[in-house]
Amino acid sequence: MPTIHVHTKPEYDIHIGRGLLDRCGELTRAVKAPCRALVLCDTNVEPLYADRVERSFAATGYEVTRHVFPAGEQSKNLAVLGELLNRLGEEGFTRTDLLAALGGGVCGDMGGFAAAVFQRGIDFVQIPTTLLAAVDSSVGGKTAVDLPCGKNMAGCFWQPKAVICDPDLFDTLSPEVFACGMAETIKTGAILDKALFEQLERCDIRSEIEAVVARCCELKRSVVEEDERDLGLRQLLNFGHTIGHGIERTSHFTLPHGYAVAIGMVLMARAAERLGASEEGITERLISILQRYGLPTSTDLPVKTLCEASHMDKKRSGKDITIVVPERLGAAVRRRMTMEELDRWIIKGASV
Ligand SMILES: NC(=O)c1ccc[n+]([C@@H]2O[C@H](COP(=O)([O-])OP(=O)(O)OC[C@H]3O[C@@H](n4cnc5c(N)ncnc54)[C@H](O)[C@@H]3O)[C@@H](O)[C@H]2O)c1
Ligand SMILES: O=C(O)C(=O)C[C@@H](O)[C@H](O)[C@H](O)COP(=O)(O)O
Ligand SMILES: [Zn+2]
After folding, report:
1. Which residues contact ligand 1 via a Cβ below 6 A?
2. What is the DSSP string of 68-114?
3. Which of 123, 146, 172 corresponds to the end of one domain?
4. Is the ipTM beyond the 0.85 threshold?
5. Same domain, yes or no, for 98 and 82?
6. Together in a domain, 138 and 202
7. pTM score, two decimals?
8. Which domain holds residue 145?
9. Which of 9, 89, 127, 345 lies most in the core, judged by the most C-beta atoms within 10 Å?
């Protein structure tokens, strides 16, 4: 069972292994004394996994309460967050209690944010149930909800006490949700690790999933250890997200995050290649690997809409914005530019 230690403040372990779901109570107890625990999950995850998690917490001494919200990105908002915070209050949760986010990125992001702000901060653990949450969102402590004006617009950094990842849970994912996880996995290879990218180009992903998740967590760990607060290096993890988040907002959060990021990566890579900022052939390889995993690589949205939607990006400061450019496979860089220049890049990237 790989365990990856993350040296942030506070520090924590990521446990990865088949069957770990039934040991989540014991793994949590190693870092948090038994207390009241609120298990947060959505309506799809609840019937599949909530009972097992609650049994494991109860068997190790925790007093468990369950809170369920409607599945989907459209729940990642202030209203659903407010209901969750109220529930914690009404149930009499105190500062020394725990929230366990059992789910995908929506559950982890919103649950983490609730943990960060309830009584100014309670402990939480991440129990990722999607591939996306396992390779990306459960690690690094970015928590948030969406606002009508944009993705993850209200949030904060709040590290979990532990991440407990059981790859057996991916067996119940729909092909679409599994593919969304592949988008962030491919992103990780594209920006940080050519060998991982090439492994994904040829491998039978289902049989190598545990190693691939562990590699992604190691890579993300090293980035967030160096730049926990997203002030520099960490922005590389945002490859494809400037356009991707814009597309998500334009779709009123109906297009899945992984799909939007896949499209965003292709557009940025194509623009960079055409402008001589990336090695030749990178766009073709990106398109072909994304298609291999059933991901979209283009959008019908008008280019004007793409430009306007991309201007809300959190990497903007004043009149300038930082974008992520895949200079070479496995080696991305940040590049500061004006908003006009970004628009030129998007126009270049969107014209096929
Ligand atoms: N905090 C971060 O660093 C970070 C990183 C990447 C993405 N994100 C966020 O993550 C979110 C996307 O995450 P996601 O793709 O996991 O979406 P999600 O949480 O909505 O899960 C996708 C769907 O899969 C279902 N599901 C979850 N686990 C299941 C299982 N084991 N079996 C069957 N169905 C299951 C859910 O009910 C949901 O319908 C976005 O909001 C994105 O912004 C955050
Ligand atoms: O962890 C990070 O940092 C990332 O950028 C990972 C992204 O995949 C993720 O979608 C993140 O939530 C985006 O962050 P944001 O700051 O652009 O909202
Ligand atoms: Zn993402």
Report:
1. 42, 44-45, 48, 71-73, 76, 103-107, 109, 129-130, 132-133, 136-137, 140, 142, 151-152, 169, 172-173, 177, 180, 184, 257-258
2. EE-SSGGG-SHHHHHHHHHHHHHTT--TT-EEEEEESHHHHHHHHHH
3. 172
4. yes
5. yes
6. no
7. 0.98
8. 3-172
9. 127
